Amino acid sequence: MPVLRALSKVAKQALLTPACGCQSLTVAIRNISFSPRQVTSGSDASFHSVSFSETDHPKVLITGGLGQLGVGLAKLLRKRFGKNNVILSDIRKPPSNVFHSGPFIYSDILDYKNLREIVVNNRITWLVHYSALLSAVGESNVALARAVNITGLHNILDIAAEHGLRLFVPSTIGAFGPTSPRNPTPDLCVQRPRTIYGVSKVHAELMGEYYHHRYGLDFRCLRYPGIISADSQPGGGTTDYAVQIFHDAVKNGKFECNLKPDTRLPMMYIDDCLRATLEVMEAPTETLSMRTYNINAMSFTPEELANEVQKQLPDLQVTYEIDSVRQAIADSWPMNFDDSNARNDWGWKHDYDLPELVQTMLNFIGSDSRIAQAN
Ligand SMILES: NC(=O)c1ccc[n+]([C@@H]2O[C@H](COP(=O)([O-])OP(=O)(O)OC[C@H]3O[C@@H](n4cnc5c(N)ncnc54)[C@H](O)[C@@H]3O)[C@@H](O)[C@H]2O)c1
Ligand SMILES: C[C@@H](O)[C@H](N)C(=O)O
């Protein structure tokens, strides 16, 4: 007991003044008798208990890493920081190529103790929080979406604040709703989304910014548009059609679209999205005038995308069978995204517009299916 009391005293003394200048705070303790969930001051990562000066590179944990975006991000970060400095995690079993490409670990974000153990044992300094249920799948299981997207986020925020991590949480065009300005949608405006996904993402933006101002958490957030990738499948979103069209066009020459032909949404090729994520994580604190930024590349309708694909594959037949849930969601989302703050503050610039996107996707999927046919 005296040891615990002494440790508790040391821990209390270590509490510093939060960024807002208000009194030092201890975040609620979760089952830890002598280690208060303390958080330290300043809006920079420089106070970290394991700071970048102690290690050559950040030590990164990616949650929900087996979805559409995580594997690609791990590849990019491993190139930059070294294979063993980036740990992918998920609750699913990784395919063998992913398992053998670098460290993988089981992590359920609803298990706070397990998360904390991973962060401590691996001396994590950056946390990229990708676990989520996306918009369409969230509407089919609201209770699970609420647990993963909201309760899970609370665990992540507390772990990150307690261990002085730099935390990236993606938000989305889905964080806006029918009463937001839709063409274009600025960073700061009314946000009244009508999906559990959108509500949970607005909550994440606000909680992250609150922890930043109150406790000095180095929280960074980008609102991604719909992301289009060739080698990874989307996980139940409203923008999935813009990935599926390429696979169906190459394999069957036919595509049935579940959104109306004139549904305009902001979109981005995955390489731009992952690069933006790395860039905002590496941006010097003083360049960030905000903690949540819109980023964008292009904006198109299913009809415009189909026309561009048909320039390469003129025989492609496109029909429309509208999914009412997805259509209602899409109709409430931004048509165009104003990302001027990201461009001005930390130099965001996309590489892929619609023609390059289509060419790249067709090259990738075409060469993949040629390899499959040859085998
Ligand atoms: N893909 C897009 O178009 C897009 C656009 C905007 C924002 N985002 C955001 O980017 C992030 C990654 O998106 P994605 O497309 O890779 O999503 P995804 O649905 O493909 O993958 C999410 C992953 O989370 C995992 N997961 C679910 N419950 C979990 C739990 N309890 N613990 C740990 N992991 C769990 C799933 O197994 C899955 O692998 C998400 O937060 C998403 O909201 C994605
Ligand atoms: C836009 C994004 O957040 C995701 N692709 C979805 O449609 O749900």
Report the C-alpha radius of gyration, rounded.
Answer: 21 Å
Q: Judging from the principal axes of the Cα atoms, what is the shape?
A: globular
Q: What is the succession of H and E elements?
A: HEEEHEHEHEHHEEHEEHEEHEEHEHHH
By DSSP (H or I, 4+ residues per run), the number of helices equals 13
- Major sheet: 8 strands, parallel
Estimated helix fraction: 40-55%
User: Which band does the percent of strand residues land in?
Assistant: 5-15%
> Which stretches are poorly predicted, pLDDT < 50 over at least 5 residues?
1-54
Tally of DSSP β-strands: 15
- Average pLDDT, all residues: 88
Distance between the termini: 66 Å
Q: Which ligands accompany this protein? A: nicotinamide-adenine-dinucleotide, threonine
Given the helix and strand composition, which structural class is it?
A: alpha/beta
